[in-house]
């Protein structure tokens, strides 16, 4: 059983505009460059949202496949595609990204207000993603935006069985306006709902990044960081790049005496096949 820290990089997201955040990686070259930099600093998984040639979020399969291939060609990172997309994406298109055959994909566990928008995740979509991922050997990272989403995860597993890889890993996405707050108290409230044998990570959106990271490390959790979630490094100081956020996460993990997992260790933890096994 590993005692290290899984660091997932979420470099881009679907919410920020390149015009507002010039450092946001949106081209294939920018995404590959930030993925390589962050792998060298301790990231083991990359959570990808894809942008089109106009820098807008897209689920276009050709473009998604291009980015997956480019990241695989230049890094050993576990490639985790977002099945959450943008709040405006049609649900069938979010399922269709699985055709790009990533190692892993996110799977959001419930509908949540998302600022002024609604991020829609009805039960039937959850079951569809869970089942399709298992049939295709794609390992889910379940995403909980609220405490009740963890109860949904237990119900999902009871009714539909374990995911591909046999291991359950859930990311607590905290601090979304409309979801659970990014506080130590909220993280502690989630812990009893995390079943024995599961692992969890936490992500603090915006200014909750640092407190959530510290709370997660103290509770034995893993970390997700990146410009999808955080654009300000400190009050009044914009994030320079994703590497700055991964370096901080890896440094805190070292201080916690749970250093960053390698990509090989991450695959073992999550039940993800090596690239060689996957192509056999
Ligand atoms: N962009 C958010 C609406 C995911 O990637 O699975 C949803 C999201 C979750 O980012
Ligand atoms: Zn995402």
From TrEMBL:
Keyword match 4Fe-4S: no
UniProt xrefs under InterPro entries: Aldolase_TIM, BKACE
Co-factor requirement: Zn(2+)
Alphabetical keyword list: Metal-binding, Transferase, Zinc
Keyword Ligase: no
GO molecular-function terms, A-Z: 3-keto-5-aminohexanoate cleavage activity; metal ion binding
Record's protein name: 3-keto-5-aminohexanoate cleavage enzyme
């Amino acid at each position: 059983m590993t005692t290290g820290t899984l660091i997932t990089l979420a470099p881009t997201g679907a919410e920020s505009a390149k015009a507002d955040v010039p450092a946001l990686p949106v081209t294939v070259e920018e995404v590959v460059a930030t993925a390589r930099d962050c792998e060298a600093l301790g990231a083991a998984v990359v959570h990808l949202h894809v942008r089109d040639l106009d820098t807008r979020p897209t689920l276009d399969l050709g473009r998604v496949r291009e980015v997956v291939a480019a990241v695989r060609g230049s890094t050993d990172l576990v490639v985790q595609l977002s099945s959450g997309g943008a709040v405006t994406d049609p649900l069938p298109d979010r399922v269709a990204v699985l055709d790009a055959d990533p190692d892993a994909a996110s799977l959001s566990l419930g509908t949540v207000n998302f600022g002024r928008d609604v991020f829609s995740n009805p039960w039937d979509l959850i079951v569809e993603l869970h089942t399709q991922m298992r049939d295709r050997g794609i390992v889910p990272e379940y995403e909980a935006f609220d405490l009740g989403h963890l109860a949904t995860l237990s119900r999902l597993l009871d009714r539909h069985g374990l995911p591909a890889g046999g291991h359950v890993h859930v990311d607590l996405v905290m601090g979304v306006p409309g979801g659970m707050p990014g506080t130590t108290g909220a993280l502690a409230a989630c812990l009893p709902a995390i079943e024995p044998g599961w692992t969890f990570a936490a992500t603090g959106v915006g200014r909750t990044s640092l407190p959530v990271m510290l709370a997660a490390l103290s509770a034995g959790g893993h970390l997700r960081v990146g410009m999808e979630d955080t654009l300000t490094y400190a009050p009044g100081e914009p994030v320079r790049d994703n590497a700055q956020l991964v370096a901080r996460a890896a440094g805190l993990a070292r201080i916690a005496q749970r250093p960053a997992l390698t990509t090989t260790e991450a695959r073992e933890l999550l039940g993800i096949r090596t690239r060689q096994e996957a192509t056999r």
